[in-house]
Amino acid sequence: MSVICKDVKMAFKTAAGSVSVLKGVDFSAPAGMLTMLVGPSGCGKTTLISLIAGLLRGATGSMQVFGHEVSSMSASMLVPYRLKNIGFIFQQYNLLAGLTASENVAVPLVASGFDWPTALSQGKVLLEKLGLGTHAHKLPSQLSGGQQQRVAIARALVHSPKLLLCDEPTAALDGQAGQAVMTLLRELAIAEDRAAIVVTHDPRVYSFADRVVHMEDGLIAKVESISLGKPDVTTHSTSR
Amino acid sequence: MNLVAFKILLHDKAKYVALVLGVSFATLLISQQSAIFHSLMHASTRDILEANQADIWVMKSSVETLDQGYPIAELSVNRVRSIPGVQWAVPYYQSTAQLRTEDGRMKLVQLVGIDDLSMVGAPQEMLIGTLAGFHQPDAIVMDIAGYTNIFPGVEPRVGAIVEIGQRRAVVVGICYIGASWSGMPRVYTRRSLGVSMARETLNPVTYVLARAAPDHSPEEVAKQITKATGLKARTRSEFMDDTQTWILKYSGIAENFGITILMGVVIGVAIVGQTFYMFSVENLKQFATLKAIGINNWVILRMIMTQALFVSTIGYCLGIGAANLFFAMTSTQLSGGLRGMFMHPFIFVGSGIFIVLVTLLACVVSVRKVLTVDPAVVFRG
Ligand SMILES: Nc1ncnc2c1ncn2[C@@H]1O[C@H](COP(=O)(O)OP(=O)(O)OP(=O)(O)O)[C@@H](O)[C@H]1O
Ligand SMILES: [Mg+2]
User: Which of A194, B204, B361, B378 has the highest local Cβ count within 10 Å?
Assistant: First the structure.
């Protein structure tokens, strides 16, 4: 196991008082697999992966990510933790508008201390693999949504992170582009020592998962292991 | 990551241009107005600047400023000459007088009477004619700006005959004199002639110009002169200071320029601050993404400071360039109130430092926003 969350509780303070969003989540994402996190809007999916990513603090419980106890890290420790261990893919791609595709991909490497030429050439190699070799010099605005998301995949993977976190990576894409992005994700992201978590609403892409974790109202409802197309359903205890 | 900072900055061309223009406009306003102010103050000491052979000015004790000298007795010159440490002392006469052209037009002019023998205080830059012309009968030398004022449209040349204080005067030379405080045409003549043109009978000296002997300090000699004669004796630089202080105190010029310069500052801060703020807010998501990826606040801060410094440097260069282009065009004019105006190196450097500080200050506000943006927003809309 590589990502193991136990009894994670998270509440947000709002004007109306404290709102409990995660109510004791037990969640895991093994290395070498693509785990999908699904569930109705507002059930807490983004909150959970933000906590695992160290983008959000203030939860109780335990969150082990490849041996790091994320819940006990200080804000300043979380920054290098993210840089070293996590690759992000966002619904809106979030590419830097002024940078070309290959420059965007190079950013995590440059931030990790590589010089630009090295980072750029590694970025280009990865873009080739994603079928974007001829687009490496283009700005995001010159690329289609699907192409931009592929650039984002390259940026998320270029520094070989242990954990890949994707929030609705296909939500902004049409069916075909979504399928293409997921195919590439499976091809490139799945590795022995890497866990991938994909939050999605999109049932058309469930088939790309090894495991599907269903969330409901701040709790894990059930976990499906998908092997050879036959779902093996384990219903999760929700007795808390 | 500074390269990323540049690319982010340059990508939004419209905002980048607005930022640079804001900075350059503020620079132009601040540096040009400061330079004009400084030049005007400089011009207010015009006679002291022209009579640069003298390092001590002696005057009636009630004189506060260069343009308001009172006549003193001729005897004063000899009294100054008798003070130990005075190398030489000569009379200098200054007054306003009525000039009448042959066709009957009247002009008030600034009359300067220079010592007949030593010629101390004579114009330094003769355009037409020579200083020898002063010894001709009824000789006057006019400054070119005054000449074109008195004889509009007439090609400057010697030979024009006018009447000053009901005395005949012949233009024997035309000189260049930088702008002065009063802006009146300037007429130079021998003191003996000037005194009669101004119809001065009793006291034909306004200032005694003196020079300290090589082994004496002008300050020390000036004190000695005051002590021995009861007249006010000031070194060249003291008298310049007196004159400028008087003008600052009584003219309102400092307030006037102060307001304009302040406006430059306010406009600069407003435009630059506002645009930089908008720029940062619009790029907030990009910065949040960088923070999510794992770029720390110090690097982000450096990126923003790099952007600010880059913008302020380019804006400053354009603004200071425009200001100097302005002076390059006006300063070489022979007449006109802006002639001889220039930008002191202090203003050149000072406005640069100032603009960089203003820009950095303006971006501090936006920096706060960027540094405190929650990287968790990257997952939201
Ligand atoms: N910063 C916050 N402050 C207050 N409430 C928040 C905050 N972030 C999230 N919430 C609330 O927490 C709940 C869960 O939000 P979250 O974004 O995790 O849901 P989600 O499962 O990702 O939903 P969606 O599928 O719509 O993206 C929602 O009710 C949301 O309003
Ligand atoms: Mg969400």
Answer: B378
